Queue: 2 jobs
Job 1
Amino acid sequence: MPIPTASFARSPESGRPEHCDLILHNARILTVDANDRVVAGGAIAVRNGRIAALDRQERILATYSSDELFDAKGGVVHPGFIDAHVHISQYTARSVLPLMEGTSITMGHWKGELTPEDEYASARLAALDYLKCGYTGFVDPGTIFAPDAVAPVADEAGIRIWLTDPYVADNAEALAENLPELTSQSFLARWPRSTHEALKRLGSQLFRNSNRDSLVKAFVGLYGEATDSPELYKAALDLASDHGVRLQEHLGYLPAFQLKREKALGRPVLKWFEECGLLAPHVTFIHMNLVREDEISLLARRGVRVVWCPWGQLQMLGQPGADARMVELQRSDVAVGIASDIPRVADFDALGTLAMSAAAASGRPASPSEILRMRTIGAAATIGAEEELGSLEPGKRADFVVRSPTASVNFGFDPGLETAVIGGRDTVDAVFVGGRQVVHAGEVVSLDADAVVAEAHRSAHALASRIALGG
């Protein structure tokens, strides 16, 4: 649709339309805000990296002018997806697990050998795939040994990254005892050896929040799953509160381990957290594959947020004690964000299908619109970014995805299903982060894809060789 430039209205103060940096028009906009609006024939005005206005295009074009116009050609526009939890330095290891079967080599050996160069290569490969799949950010939970090696990927690729201190824990033995397939001596040797060492790591990345416009942000993270003492947890909780960020940790990945822990505590883990004063509105738990019905109201009342890893949940559903209630949590006003964890069985763009499958397998099906919310505003909430990201509203960061109107799945009947569940990377036409276009015609404009892939392959094969892993 041609832009009717002659229809620009003049503001009474200046006699000129308001100037902005970008106008996206001719779009079907899914706001994913509190009203869940669908704005047909919509437009977005962007100024200084934020949404200045969003409305039907005739109103935007009558009020704003811009030298940069983007015609969505009738395609759907929605907030960028955020991966709420991913072990980014392990992305290049996504196909190595089968090679470890029947050997003494574990993922712990792989992680124990990671160099800053390996983590950089892995993060760049993930960023390339994320952007092509309609993601505008991802959260690593503290499993990057060299955050300074990964942080530059944000500006190079044009993607938001949330990170924290590496492997903050003071009881690594709990992980070795309950998940030996994830550990090795070389890996655990890189963990803190005491509460004192863990406390020294805590908060080392928070300096990144001093620049409000930076694509890299930090939070407070503990590894969790009983690898942290109450003293360390309380210190992390207080630090997060003092800095206005969230505290995240793994909890309830293995239902059997949670039941074992509860037997030792003599009460449910969440009840113990509450009694110890360790539940707070700025806490986010990851996994939660065992949630009892009466614990839903506790989590909602305390303002705790939850990260849902659908593949991890599917792995646990057949095990004793598993009780997945992510959809119930979402419907009870507990913010839930969907995450890949480690995308071993599906690409990032299949995460919506995995979530729908996991919800159905748990006996509590989700709707496509709920999946869309959990991949956008829900994911933003789990990292404390919902005031800035996750929905398309004036004042928020201009992070959005433009879908091709000619893609085979885009009938327009169910936008949530067509974008957040069955819409793959082939439907993504453009991606904007902070108003800057980082994907054009489905390709990432800021990265040399061939070079990124080649370097990731070199890194993975060299690392596999170092740990004597064939293949």
Job 2
Amino acid sequence: MNELIDIILHTDDALLALVSDNIVKAYMVLFIIIMLETGVILFPFLPGDGLLFSAGVITATTELNLYILLPLLILSAILGNAINYRTGVLFGGSLHKSRNYFIRTSLVKHLPKAEAFYSKYGGRAIILGRFFPVIRTYLPFVAGLVRMEKALFMKNTIIGAIIWVSLFLCMGNLLGEIPWVKNNYGLIFLFLILITLIPLLLALLRRTVFKR
């Protein structure tokens, strides 16, 4: 649990320390974080994009192996989506109407954005949503809630997971050998978070300013 918290708060330094201390545990922690972010509606704040990029950078300079990490985290992303979809199928209605404070502040606050995204893009939303923080956590739940065809959901989940994980991990690995990137990837991590939040910030701006 301490490793999870450290990686959330200090991703680059904590991940380096974990890899140096115990490589097997590093693989396990990365697997769990990606699975939680995509599989549990209470964890939309976990740093998916930045974590994948940071892990890719670290594979270029440490014993963390890209060829082990790539299929491992693709599997994690697929498994997370499948769990979230099943949660939507089984408990979607009751969770949507729940009066529990933690459920309402996490689910009710963000679910309309995911529902709107799903309505706009349909089945493709499962692929496209991988690249939008918060939305990617709630889309599989929405897909389960509306009983999206399971075969289509799993096909798009697999495609989206392969593209998302491969893009950020490989980009980090390719850039990780560059000295400036190696010395400043904490700054790059922050930049990635800001870039991926831009669509959500623009949507919020349109809703609060232009609808007055």
